[in-house]
Design brief:
heterodimer; A: about 325 residues; alpha/beta; Rossmann fold; two-stranded antiparallel ribbon; 13 helices; about 10% strand; B: about 325 residues; seven-stranded mixed β-sheet; five-stranded mixed β-sheet; globular
Chain lengths: ~325, ~325
Amino acid sequence: MTLDPLAAYRWMRLTREVDETIRNLWLTGQGVGGTFNQRGHEAIAVGPALCLEPADVVAPMHRDLGAYLVRGMTPERLLAHQLGRETGPSRGRDANIHGCGDLDLNIIGFISHLPQSLPVAVGAAMAFKLRSEPRVAMTWTGDGGSITGLYAESLNLAALDQAPVVIIVENNQYAYSTPIEQHSANPDIAERSEALGVVAVEVDGNDIEAVHKASRKAVNRARNGGGPTVIVAETMRMLGHAIHDGFEYVPDHLLERWEARDPLTIFEQRAGEHGTTIDQLRAIDSDVAAEVKAALVVAQGSPFPDPATVTDGVWAG
Amino acid sequence: MAEGTYLDAISAAIIHEMERDERVLVMGEDVAGPFGGAFKVTKPVAERFPSTRVRNMPMTELGFIGAANGMALMGLRPVIELQFADFISSGFDSIVQFASTAHYRWGGAVPWVIRAPSDGNLRSGPFHSQNPEAWFVHTPGLKVVAPSTVADAYGLFQSAVRDDNPVIYFESKPLYRSLKGEVPEGDAPVPLGLAEVARSGRHCTVVTYGAMRHEAMAAAEELAAEGVELEVIDLRTLKPLDMDTVASSVARTSRVLVTHAANQLGGVGAEIAATIADECFTDLDAPVKRLGGLDVPVPFSPPLEDAYRPNAAKIAAACRDLCAW
């Protein structure tokens, strides 16, 4: 499927708006517990998710707010989840964006132990292949996740089975406070991935057209029996690891360089090339702002879970 | 019904569940044919089913149990063989962080079974003799099963596969080929969470599971000759735990020993003993006694492993002490 530029911009703007709404809640003392922001990861989350069919499955992580939104998790539910309300997808059981799973939307909730969603997505893809279903699994991890043993275990398994899985590695330069050159003896993630037997490509993670193009190719390859692909997407985490983190460890010049390459900014700079106008983008901005504002009112008016239900849901069936 | 071993019963139960439900598949290291697994449990399974349903995995427990999580979320029912229960620690995050919490956190059911060949007395040393069940009983969201008879090895496996939750099924290696009996056929599920009174007696209750059931039964024979009648309770499932059967036995005997092959410190027996103390205090005529392994890695050399491990003689001695109160 080709990229609809206005739709792509709308999803990225919605992602940014929900993300900033969350940030403002926490900075004004209205948050519950801790939270994460995704600023700068809009293209990496939205672009790949727009390549999927409804029956495909995603296993995103904490910077991939855009993927949850594209897959149909509404701003109301996401904000209610962040605020610990009964109406969120985890009914107040899991925090911030952890545990935002919903199998009706084919979203698998993640855990903190990255890259735990990676073998899960590989297993989902193995199930699709076993049942000869034309479905694809997609997951995201980071530069930190890419250096784990589990990354190697999962890629090897995906390659052995030629499982229909697409793995986005968002290289946002830092694993919490540790820059990639301090945590990876070989910082070439694509090279390390190829060595494990998968196809790996590199892409500008802030350019939604580039991310979408690479993802579309990978999804088509997976769906047509061509096996797994790793897409290493270069980006920058523009805020701290979590809301409490002032990220003083990131040099200003790095942030300035990446700020000029903000995914929404570079999309707007190319508005004419897409056949879109600045007026159209501003109209989307105001629509999205109103939508998220209304969603927040709904989320804040939603009930907290009843403490009498605290043990509900431990067991399935 | 045909006579067979405890191991035969597990193989037969796997075959029955795979015939009954096409969602069931087997995965693990060396499980495929013609090799059929380190203990050959899956050899007859691999002879009957295609390689897509009896799948060899690389030596990556964390990764392939993680993949089983994904398969289970997508509606399959993986049966995961570990070569030894000792290696379960290599897959820990995939079990105790992902699988156990998914349903509580967001409603994702993870219906797999991990088959974990556990226990010792086989002179196999620290890494092929462990009983790590307490880790998993302590983890919310996991069920834990420990069959001790041929019929239960068959029937508890069926219930484990049909359960919608992650279940860890601790097989007892010392019983694999030494224990023989009638292997059930067809549907014979034994419900999870139901203990069995393996022997009735009026003087002292022995609560146990796994291979220790048979040591307790031998101790009961020994003490019967002395006029002491032990009641032996085989828990069969460690989570959920059938405390009703335990409490009603303690109400009859007023004395209780809790014994298992796992080390005693922080073991499942500690939880059972504490619950008996909480709920059965007025029934007791003696302190609740525990008998487990020593707080050491399971040693290899026969005199050391014998010193580590409870057995019939140690159980009989402990019960004599209890009956002296």
